[in-house]
Design goal:
- The protein has about 100 residues and is α+β, with helices and mostly antiparallel strands.
- The protein has a domain of about 55 residues: Zinc/RING finger domain, C3HC4 (zinc finger) (Herpes Virus-1).
- The protein is built from two helices and five strands; from the N terminus they run αββαβββ.
- The longest helix is centred in the middle third of the chain and has 9 residues.
- This is UBP-type domain-containing protein.
- It holds the Pfam family zf-UBP.
- It comes from Pseudorhodoferax aquiterrae.
- InterPro entries: Znf_RING/FYVE/PHD, Znf_UBP.
Length: about 100
C-alpha cells in the first residue's frame, strides 16, 4: 500500500512571499532549490541548501506541505507524513524572474 498524505485538504492557493528564499535574500546567502509553503506562501530553500529555510519554516509553523517551486514542478512534499504529494496542475505561478545562485 502506498503511503498517503493526511494533510492534502489543507493545501491552499498562496501568493509567494519573495522572488527567492526569503531568509537567504535577507542575509545574502545562496540556495540550491526553492520550496513554497502551500499554507502561507513562504518561499524557503531546500534541504540541499546551506540553511534549509523551508524545513526551518515547517518546524517554526507546523505548515506541512511544500511545493517544488523553481520553476513550479507539479509536486509537493508533506513534512509530517514524509510523502510526495502530486499537485498536478495546481502549481503556483512565479511572480517574476527568480535569481539563480548555486
Amino acid at each position: 500500500m502506498r503511503p498517503v498524505c493526511s494533510h492534502t485538504a489543507g493545501i491552499l492557493r498562496v501568493h509567494p512571499s519573495a522572488l527567492g528564499c526569503e531568509e537567504c535574500l535577507k542575509i545574502g546567502s545562496e540556495w540550491v532549490h526553492l520550496r513554497l509553503c502551500r499554507h502561507c506562501g513562504h518561499v524557503g530553500c531546500c534541504d540541499d541548501s546551506p540553511h534549509r529555510h523551508a524545513r526551518a519554516h515547517f518546524h517554526a509553523t507546523g505548515h506541512p506541505i511544500i511545493e517544488g517551486y523553481d520553476p513550479p514542478e507539479g509536486w509537493g512534499w508533506c513534512f509530517v507524513d514524509k510523502v510526495m504529494v502530486d499537485l498536478g496542475a495546481d502549481t503556483t505561478p512565479q511572480n517574476g524572474p527568480i535569481p539563480r545562485y548555486v
